[in-house]
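User: Please predict the structure of the protein below. I'd like the answer in structure-token form so I can feed it into my own downstream comparison script.

Assistant: Understood. Taking the following sequence of 324 residues as input:
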Amino acid sequence: MLARRALLASATAVLALSLAAPASAQPGRPLPVVATFSILSDMVKRIGGEQVAVTTLVGPDGDTHVYQPTPADARAVSEARLIVVNGLQFEGWLDRLIDASDFDGTRVVVTDGIEPIAFEHSEDAHDRDHETDHEKHAEGDDHDGHDHGVFDPHAWQSLRNAAVYVDNITDALSKADPGNASLFYRNREAYVAEIEILHSEIREMIAGLPAASRTVVTSHDAFQYFGRDYGLTFIAPQGLSTESEASAKDVVRLIQQIRDRGIRAVFIENIGDPRLLERIADETGAVIGGTLYPGALSGPDGPAPTYLDLMRHNAKTLTQALAS
């Protein structure tokens, strides 16, 4: 079971928050919140319910890595009380957007308190040569994955981290709208219970996979947290960002790994161009095992319209293809 944090929604805590209500609070009106991408938006809506009005900058099937903010985004940010962000340098465009909007609310960094995976560990999972940055740049190879700094930002791919995300969101909403704090914490308790149940379900799904079927090939390196939690190894031709382009050397190395390890399936992503993975599959005889959702929800009629649906869909897609 995931470790539960002590709920702060005791009568004393709620009373203290109510007494500290900011003068700008407007009772009866939803709290204006901006979420940088669809996964965070879904979490905020689950906790805030009808008491929040959420604007999502990067919507379903959108790629946050390459997103370009619009003037409408700047207006939404300027009107928001909270902006909920992933952090770990995932939203490389965020500071420019905030500067352009004159935002004077609270920035909520949902990864505060997690233990991020260092990029070096992610590189080891690729079985790549230990080249120095100097050597890679000298070869004209920009595939060093440092678009996001030293840590892997895709921390939502761990349900254990998701509980931390939820705690940070709940705490921020409660401080911004103390009158609804007890509601937010009740929603938080129910949501974390669902997260814990799904974590156990996915562990059971993947536990039956043989050791030889636990290597996964995806488009870009977004699943290291998932792999750490459930005992899978993920390798990809691209780095931590979809902005990086796979070098010819990386592709050749990956093709050789697939052949050497007898990997039978590769997986495309909803936010990426599938052509490179399709070519790799053709070269190796591997099949396309399905579509994974690394960093964006599907539309409402798709297989991953919520964060929990996304995690469940990814786990089922992986286990069905790897077990066949």
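That's the full token string. Residues 33 and 54 are 5 Å apart (CA to CA).
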